Amino acid sequence: MSTVTRYPLLQTHMQHSRLTPLALALMLASTGVFAADNEGVEEIVVIGQGIGTLRLNAANGAGSRLGLSALDTPASVDLVTRTEIMAKGDYSAIDSITRTAGLSSTSNNGNGGMQVSSRGFNGHGTTVNTYDGTRLYITAGTVTFPADTWTLDRVEVLRGAGSVINGVGALATTINYVPRNATLGTESFDSMAALGSFGLMRIAAGGNQAFNEQVAGRLDVALTEKDGYVDRADEERQVVATSLLWQPIEDFSMRFSVDYANIDAAPYWGTPLVNGSASDSLRQQNYNYADGKVNYKDVWARVHTEWQLSDSVTFRNDTFVINADREWQNLEEYAYNGKGRLDLGGYYGIVHDQQQVGTRGDLLFSNSFGDMDNRFTIGAEVNSVELNYLNNFNTGGFDVAESVPVFNAPLINRPAAVFTQLDYSTDTSQYGFFFDDVLELSDRFSVVFGGRYDDFGYDRVNNAQVTGRGRSQFDAGFSKFTWRAGLVFEASDTLRLYAQTSTAADPVTSPISINLANADFNLSEGRQYEVGMKQQFMSGKGEYTLAYFDIEKKGLVTRLPGTTISSQIGQQSSNGFEVTLRLNPLERLSIDMNAAFIDAEYDKFFVGGVSLAGNTPSEVPDTTANVWVNYAPIDKLQLGAGVRYVAERYRNVQNTGVLPSYSVVDAAASWLMDERTTLVLRARNLTDEKDYVLSEYSTDQWVFSEPRAYELSVRYSF
After folding, report:
1. Distance between CA atoms of 660 and 340, rounded to whole angstroms?
2. CB 110 within 8 A of CB 128
3. DSSP annotation of 41
4. Phi-psi domain of 610 (left: phi exceeds 0; alpha: psi -120 through 50; beta: other)
5. In a domain, 326, yes or no
6. Contact 144, 298 (CB under 8 A)
7. Least confident piece of the model among 88-102, 128-142, 396-410
8. What predicted TM-score, i.e. pTM, was given to this entire model?
9. d(Cα 634, Cα 162) in Å, to the nearest integer?
10. Distance set, CA 275 to CA 217, 286, 341, 483, 700 (Å)
11. How far apart are CA 303 and CA 171, in angstroms?
């Protein structure tokens, strides 16, 4: 095993150009692109050469807090660099992460557009999303940040159980979005402007300014407008990310960051099925209210402190405040009645007001036990979350229009008066204690083990509701210890074999929006076994990973047959293989591909008194695959193309229907006009895949992704 180096105090990227603060402020109105480097990531970024990324030598924060490389981590970890994101034109977080092995989108605007299926499990309840290492606890199944990839330096992915790293809710996947932060010794600027199909207009700019040897700042801005491919499905995004770095001495630094996003998402809730199928003629129809609304506002303020107390001890702390305001005003359910009309229902007027305050600190020790090198971290985390939730809705249709014609449906405005169904406030306190350790047993063997204890206290106040119930209040709480242990064998300098076992815990619902029916349930418990191998070959021009996993989750809430009693007797399992392959065989050629094969089923589960044992969970594909190829036929010209494949998925837990498989082709061509300016032509869904269904919003309507679209952009950097 290679000796583990001391955790870096700062990642410093050196690019030299002259840029004054005034120039930076003026140039944020112009256009261009900058590809940020990542420590330990070998990137080829010159137009006229292949754009390839070899990632096994890079540290991955989603996999551990020990600064381990992906090669030396006994788990399936992945990394998406900024260079890749820019090359593939992925503006949204969901697009970037679903190009990695085994992740497929199950998103819609109700869940924030960021929900995925991974390793046989679907939804936010088994996936943890963090931003710069900070976790936003989900509210009623909704995650809305990060809003745009322009502010990101990279995305780190841990597949499988990750509760040891970030606590409950991380059985399937942990995703850490790492923003571009201020760096010392660097002055840079990059920008872009784009026009495209469906009224796309996008302007983005960013720059880093070193004010002196101790202070540096960074500012990134992205503005996007889009008409949408569905009628009345306009979308607007405004994103600002800032950071200020202060490093008065070599061994101490503080970084202050504030990120803001304001999203008016498309008020589109799917296309209704007619006689069980999706009609092409209806895919641009929008049956929502004429004044439908989906708005998300997020503000993240953070202070990151890193202090190297000695050669062997480093203190790290993150303190943060998160404010999230969300609002929906929509008619979201439409069902074909067989008579040429759609029955309307599901008016939702929902408001979230969420604030989270927290801090996480740890001590990192680098020492030895005899001849064995050791790295150990121990720390604690505290969060306080306040949520105000209001829901006005009616599921029985409306007097103004209980049904409308399928074709030429009239525009309908929201009803003037509706009743309050839900109105509550919650206070959630969470604290956790964790440790993580890597011990080199010999030159060939190392062991990684860790544990975490989490405790939640929950208080909910229900205000007066339409049912006539008065104000009420109840408390709840739960706690859990999770752990992992892994062994890594260094078969050669470039080949690792590993095995690990880990546990995880998932709440039966969002831990900050528990209702009385779920107050007495315990956490669902999960365990995972995983074995795999990772290798670099071709003198560092290629690498692959191969993993087999087996996951079991117990404690699913299900209703006992012949009763009205819900009990945690359900159980689900999944197993499968994941493989990734990355090649830079030629100076001008790079290839990136991956695939996942999953067998998931319910071992014990009941719906309506009927056993669903042996059924597959909904929206879980048994096969996913991705490939992307970059080729530079001549100097200054870069061509790229890729395919995303997702197999059929069952529409429901009863397995009575399927969502169709899809293969989506994307392509791009980049021309280096001069050393600072690049022209990019991009095509998304080039073959106009008609079965590109992201999810089933309800039994009778599907959420489609965008048809074929083109985009022309100019990038400028120095």
Report:
1. 25
2. no
3. -
4. beta
5. yes
6. yes
7. 396-410
8. 0.90
9. 44
10. 58, 18, 12, 49, 9
11. 28
Torsion angle in degrees (nearest 10) through CA of 465, 468, 474, 477: -50
Give the least confident one: 241-255, 412-426, 482-496, 701-715. Answer: 412-426
CB neighbour list of residue 271: distance below 8 Å, 6 or more residues apart: 278, 282, 283, 285, 701, 702, 703, 704
Q: What is the DSSP string of 411-461?
A: P-PPPS---EEEEEEEEEEEEEEEEEEEEE-SSSEEEEEEEEEEEEEEEEE
Which amino acid belongs to residue 706? E
Query: For residue 467, what pLDDT is reported?
Result: 53
Tokens standing for residue 624 = 């996913």
Write out the residue range of the structural domain in which residue 241 sits. Answer: 21-717
- Tell me: cis bond preceding 146? Omega within 30 of 0 counts: yes
9 within some domain:
no
For the cut 60, the answer to whether the pLDDT of residue 401 exceeds it is no
Contact assessment for residue 242 and residue 283, using Cβ atoms and an 8 Å cutoff: no
State how far the Cα of 92 lies from the Cα of 627, in Å rounded to an integer: 19
Length of the chain: 718
Going by C-alpha positions, the residue among 187, 204, 217, 199 that lies closest to residue 149 is: 204
- Residue 340 CB: number of other CB atoms within 10 A? 11
Secondary structure element (H or E) that encloses residue 269, with its range: none
pLDDT of residue 468: 56
Task: Give, for 527, the enclosing helix (H) or strand (E).
Answer: strand 524-537
Is residue 8, in this structure, part of any structural domain at all? Answer: no
Percentages (nearest 5) of helix, strand, coil residues in the chain: 5, 55, 40
Three-state DSSP string of 201-262: EEEEEEEEEECCCCEEEEEEEEEEEECCCCCCCCEEEEEEEEEEEEEEECCEEEEEEEEEEE
Flag whether 3 is in a domain: no
- The total number of structural domains in the chain stands at 1
In which band, very low, low, confident or very high, does the pLDDT at 344 lie, cut at 50, 70 and 90? confident
Compute the average pLDDT of residues 555-583: 89
List, in order, residues 6 or more apart from 233 with CB less than 8 Å away: 227, 266, 267, 268, 286
| Structure tokens belonging to residue 669 | 């061509």
Place of tokens 């390839």: 52
Cβ-based neighbours of 390, under 8 Å, separated by 6 or more: 349, 350, 351, 420, 422, 423
Q: Domain with 203 in it: what CATH number?
A: 2.40.170.20
Amino acid at site 177? Y
What token pair was written down for 635?
């100097």
What tokens appear for 433 in the block?
């204690």
**Residue closest to 183 by CA, chosen among 129, 246, 133:** 246
Look at the block and give the residue holding tokens 């001391």: 6
Question: Which two tokens mark 414?
Answer: 């929201």
The Cα–Cα gap between 486 and 447 comes to 6
Q: Are 339 and 292 in contact (CB under 8 A)?
A: no
Distance of CA 714 to the CA centre of its chain: 27
